[in-house]
Amino acid sequence: DAGVIQSPRHEVTEMGQEVTLRCKPISGHDYLFWYRQTMMRGLELLIYFNNNVPIDDSGMPEDRFSAKMPNASFSTLKIQPSEPRDSAVYFCASRPSSGRGYTGELFFGEGSRLTVL
Amino acid sequence: SQKIEQNSEALNIQEGKTATLTCNYTNYSPAYLQWYRQDPGRGPVFLLLIRENEKEKRKERLKVTFDTTLKQSLFHITASQPADSATYLCASGNNAGNMLTFGGGTRLMVKP
User: A5 touching B, CB under 8 A?
Assistant: First the structure.
């Protein structure tokens, strides 16, 4: 299995530009999570989906952030307009529903490092 | 508010010794705790899960404890190796929801 795939791995943009981050979860996983990681705040949950439906977006910092999951194999996180304080590493993670021996572990992608100048 | 905290200072130990990392939580009672390893520039990787009714869990050189009285989990790596150098994250979850709350992580450096 290829694991969770994120793109781009690195993005440098200027303030005010639109940024789109992409994620392909592991096939068969029902849950998809978007996290943001910074030195100051650690890993913060932004939003998660179950069966392509957004369940909790209380972690999305502002209306400038939006996330979609048009199908089971693709999700996007969009920031429009971007600001320097959005600079962080954005992680996508997925996991299956409960099953035998279920541990609830999250499978993370390698992250997208965003720098907004 | 719910808080889960780890020692933000790096832990430096000598190869062969046991590394012990601490995770403390306040103002809630998680149903389980998970521990992840994160290498620089990589995503976190799951290591172990321990539930609230379990006192201890082991996996190879790893051991995790869960003390609901102290509101604390300890993560041990025995016979540590330089390859164990990484940041270790604890995360808490409850049975009602699907959201994990992560601590800030502790960086472990094992010197040869």
Answer: no
